[in-house]
């Protein structure tokens, strides 16, 4: 049930947020145009440190990695501390151009961007106040947003759609099937979703106003 509600919440955000424009704008922040490859490692090691006085990029020895095995990197945020941490073995893979490792870093950069650049912040303190069910939904939606932004940073909308039309939808070498499916759904439907959403909202407002006018 929580997963289903999270999907609905994510789709609603797709209706009202232009994630493609966000990706283009975020690239510009790092001096990139929309057609350029997103150099995640260079951004994490250099550009974010210059852009954010509170930022740290830390490579952590595998023997000291306290996260679960499936976690390759993380982003931690507090008022005066913004940190991307990455497992040393994953860092070495990224240095050698491994796409999966680079996407992991890009994902954490997306988390940094959502909070610090776009000011879309679901604070830990706020989430902790929620009941367990609502907490899972909030975190799932936030991860979906980060996944979508990451995918649109790594691949352009045109690349995703051309790859799909050519029957090449296997991006499993660097991204999960869920991440790609989410991005493809957005690329195929966001304009229609937005138009539908606006029409419904406008109709509802008009209906409410007509009710008020009848009363007076």
Written overview of the protein:
- The chain has 216 residues and is mainly α.
- Helices cover 65% and strands 9% of the residues.
- It has a three-stranded mixed sheet.
- A hairpin with a 2-residue loop joins strand 2 and strand 3.
- Helix 2 packs across helix 7 and helix 3 packs parallel to helix 5.
- The longest helix is centred in the C-terminal third of the chain and has 39 residues.
- The protein is globular.
Structural class: mainly alpha
How far the N terminus sits from the C terminus, by CA atoms, comes to: 43 Å
What string gives the helices and strands in order?
Answer: HHHEEEHHHHHH
Low-confidence stretches: 212-216
Give the total of beta strands: 3
What's the pLDDT, averaged over the residues?
84
Helix content: 55-70%
Number of alpha- plus pi-helical segments: 9
In what order do the strands lie side by side in the largest sheet? 1-3-2
- Kindly provide the radius of gyration, computed on alpha-carbon positions and rounded to a whole number of angstroms: 19 Å
Biggest sheet overview: 3 strands, mixed
- Name the shape in a single word: globular
Summed up, what is this model?
By secondary structure, this protein is mainly α. It is built from nine helices and three strands; from the N terminus they run H-H-H-E-E-E-H-H-H-H-H-H.
Which features would summarize this protein structure in a list?
9 helices; 9% strand; 216 residues; 3 strands
Topology (SSEs and partners):
Blueprint (H helix, E strand, L loop, with lengths): L1 H15 L2 H11 L10 H12 L3 E6 L12 E6 L2 E7 H8 L3 H19 L6 H5 L3 H23 L2 H9 L11 H39 L1
Parallel strand pairs: 1-3
Antiparallel strand pairs: 2-3
Helix pairs in contact: 1-7, 1-9, 2-7, 3-5, 4-5, 5-7, 7-9, 8-9
């Amino acid at each position: 049930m929580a997963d289903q509600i999270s999907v609905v919440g994510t789709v609603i955000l797709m209706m009202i947020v232009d994630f493609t424009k966000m990706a283009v704008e975020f690239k510009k922040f790092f001096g990139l145009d929309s057609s350029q490859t997103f150099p995640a490692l260079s951004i994490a090691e250099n550009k974010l440190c210059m852009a954010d006085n509170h930022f740290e990029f830390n490579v952590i020895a595998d023997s000291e990695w306290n996260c679960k095995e499936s976690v390759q990197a993380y982003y931690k945020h507090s008022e005066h501390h913004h940190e991307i941490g990455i497992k040393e073995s994953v860092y070495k893979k990224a240095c050698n151009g491994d796409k999966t490792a680079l996407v992991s870093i890009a994902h954490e950069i997306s988390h940094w961007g959502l909070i610090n650049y776009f000011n879309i912040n679901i604070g830990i303190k706020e989430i902790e106040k929620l009941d367990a069910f609502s907490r899972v939904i909030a975190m799932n939606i936030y991860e979906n947003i980060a996944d979508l932004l990451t995918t649109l940073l790594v691949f352009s909308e045109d690349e995703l759609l051309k790859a799909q039309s050519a029957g090449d939808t296997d991006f499993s070498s660097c991204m999960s099937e869920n991440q790609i499916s989410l991005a493809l759904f957005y690329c195929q439907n966001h304009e229609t979703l937005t138009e539908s959403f606006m029409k419904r909202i406008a109709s509802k407002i008009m209906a409410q106003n007509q009710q008020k006018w009848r009363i007076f």
